[in-house]
């Protein structure tokens, strides 16, 4: 999906919501456990319920890998099921020497190899350019580079001062030379909304994937106020607050209500800040 197509979806749905499919076999409603593939059945119903309010879906790969071959199969079926006009994110946080990164890229981007055909993958910047380049060799696919993450541990390295900058600022500055805003996004935690103005100086045109609203308590209002650019430039993820809004048989209905609430708030900010 191109940047323009993503913006068109945002404009059509009046939403920049990304629903996180952090589907945990231990948390899904027990009535689903009798299904042949409970994880896929849960995802299918969540997707059906939230599709009108959502422009992106982000399965966190850990939740699928933890289940071995069965989890991988559920992931493949889920990606196949998501309509092609929705942006898909493999939240895998990969990156290795170039030779190995090439295999990670094939895993998430090359359907003929792995059965998966994501639009994007999250990548850790720590190993530098040659660890990221192999992901960029796939046309029309996106790298979402970890810049400033939502967790407390982002202080350990990302917020260290190096010269007159923080390390996460240098990550953005340097990586701006690796790909343009048609292929590169950045992860910025919603819990770090106070840093968004500075981040927008360094990356004015890039989309930002912003996890950390909902269960982690980040403010959608602040993220939208300080992070939005002229193409919206935001995909705000919420996982647990939406997909586990209820643990009963009404889980999909409750997820729909939560997604709609977020979308309605987003439509207000799109009118105000875009
Ligand atoms: O900085 C980061 C990067 C990734 N995540 C991931 O996003 C979701 C958030 O889930 P919630 O339930 O909405 O808190 C999850 O998959 C994380 O691994 C993040 O939270 N922060």
TrEMBL record:
SMART domains: OMPdecase. It catalyses: orotidine 5'-phosphate + H(+) = UMP + CO2. Its EC number is 4.1.1.23. Keywords: Decarboxylase, Lyase, Pyrimidine biosynthesis. Residues 16-255 form the Orotidine 5'-phosphate decarboxylase domain. InterPro entries: Aldolase_TIM, OMPdecase_type-2, OMPdeCOase_dom, RibuloseP-bd_barrel. Pathway: Pyrimidine metabolism; UMP biosynthesis via de novo pathway; UMP from orotate: step 2/2. It holds the Pfam family OMPdecase. GO terms for molecular function: orotidine-5'-phosphate decarboxylase activity. Belongs to the OMP decarboxylase family. Type 2 subfamily. This is Orotidine-5'-phosphate decarboxylase. It comes from Emticicia aquatica. The gene is pyrF.
């Amino acid at each position: 999906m191109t940047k323009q197509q993503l913006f068109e979806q945002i404009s059509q749905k009046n939403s920049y919501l990304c629903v996180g499919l952090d589907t945990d076999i231990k948390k899904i409603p027990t009535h689903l456990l009798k299904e042949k593939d409970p994880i896929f059945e849960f995802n299918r119903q969540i997707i059906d319920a939230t599709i009108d309010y959502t422009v992106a879906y982000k399965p966190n790969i850990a939740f699928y890998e933890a289940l071995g071959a069965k989890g991988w199969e559920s992931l493949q079926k889920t990606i196949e099921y998501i309509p092609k006009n929705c942006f898909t994110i493999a939240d895998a946080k990969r990156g290795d020497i170039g030779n190995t990164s090439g295999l990670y890229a094939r895993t998430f981007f090359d359907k003929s190899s792995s059965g998966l055909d994501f639009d994007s993958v999250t990548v850790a910047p720590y190993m530098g350019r040659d660890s990221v380049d192999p992901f960029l060799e796939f046309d029309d696919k996106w790298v979402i580079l970890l810049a400033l993450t939502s967790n407390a541990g982002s202080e350990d390295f990302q917020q260290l001062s190096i010269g007159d900058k923080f390390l996460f600022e240098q990550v953005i500055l340097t990586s701006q030379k690796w790909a343009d805003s048609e292929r590169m996004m950045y992860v910025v935690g919603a819990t770090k909304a106070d840093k968004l103005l500075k981040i927008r100086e360094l990356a004015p045109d890039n989309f930002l994937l912003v996890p950390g609203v909902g269960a982690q308590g980040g403010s959608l209002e602040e993220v939208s106020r300080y992070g939005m650019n002229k193409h919206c430039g935001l995909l705000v993820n919420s996982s647990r607050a939406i997909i586990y809004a209820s643990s009963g048989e009404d889980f999909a209905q409750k997820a729909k209500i939560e997604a709609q609430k977020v979308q309605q708030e987003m439509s207000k900010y799109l009118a105000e800040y875009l």
